[in-house]
Amino acid sequence: MSARIVESADVAADAQIGDGSSIWHLAQVREGAVLGRNCIVGRGAYVGSGVRMGDNCKLQNYALVYEPAVLEDGVFVGPAVTFTNDHFPRAIDPSGTIKRGEDWEAVGVTCRTGASIGARSVCVAPVTIGRWALVAAGAVVTKDVPDFALVAGVPAQRIAWVGRAGEPLQREDAGTWLCPVTGERYVEHGDDRLTEEAQ
After folding, report:
1. pTM score of the predicted model
2. What is the CATH number of the domain that holds 33?
3. Which of 17, 14, 18, 47 is nearest to 32 (CA)?
4. What is the full per-residue pLDDT of the chain (199 aa) written as tens digits?
5. Spatial separation of the C-alpha atoms in residues 169 and 148, rounded to whole Å
6. Do the domain assignments include residue 71?
7. How far is 178 from 196, CA to CA, in rounded Å?
C-alpha cells in the first residue's frame, strides 16, 4: 500500500507521507512535514514545514495547519480551520524592514488523540486541544481545552462534556457522566477535568 497524491497537489520531496494517506487537489504539504498512515488532506489544505500528524487524521478542505503544529492519532480538522503560529504577527519590524523567518519564533497548536476542530474555527497558538475534545464550528480557541471538553464561542468556553463518540454526555449524578452512544462512564474532577471511568 502507498499514498495517493493527486497531480495538482504540491508535496515537498522530503515530506513523509504514510501508507494509505491521500493528498487531494491543490493541497500543499511543506518541507519536513510528517503524516502518518491513512491520513486525508483535503482540497486546498495547507500543512506547514515540519508539521507532524499521527495516523488516521483528517484535514478537510482549505484547513490551514501552520508549523510547528502537532496532531496526534485520529484528529479531525474541519473545513477552513486555521491554526496560527505567531504570538505577535507583523509583516515588518519596527524599522520598516520586512521580517524573515529567523526574525520570529514560531509557536504551535497541539491536538491530542481523537480531538475534533469544527469548521472555520481558529486556534490561536500556543494552545493544546485535549484528548477527544470537540471545538465547535466558528470558535476562537485562546486557551488550552481539557480532555473531553466541548468548547464554543469567541473566546471559546466549555459548554459541555463529550465522550469518544462525540455526543454530549448525560449527567448521572454529581460526579458521573454517561455516553448515550457507547454506555461508557466518565468521572468529573472539579469544573475542568473529566476522565474515563476505570473498567
Report:
1. 0.95
2. 2.160.10.10
3. 14
4. 699 999 999 999 999 999 999 999 999 999 999 999 999 999 999 999 999 999 999 999 999 999 999 999 999 999 999 999 998 899 998 999 999 878 888 999 999 999 999 999 999 999 999 999 999 999 999 999 999 999 999 999 999 999 999 999 999 988 899 999 999 999 999 878 999 986 5
5. 10
6. yes
7. 10
And the C-alpha cell for 162? Answer: 463529550
Instruction: Write the CA distances from 136 to 33, 79, 159, 199, integer angstroms.
Output: 27, 12, 10, 29
User: What's the total number of domains in the chain?
Assistant: 1
Cell of 186: 466518565
* Domain housing 65: 4-162
Q: Does residue 34 belong to any structural domain of this protein?
A: yes
Q: Which residues pair with 23 in a beta bridge?
A: 5, 41
115 is a domain residue: yes
Residue 155 lies in a domain: yes
Peptide bond into 126 cis (omega under 30): yes
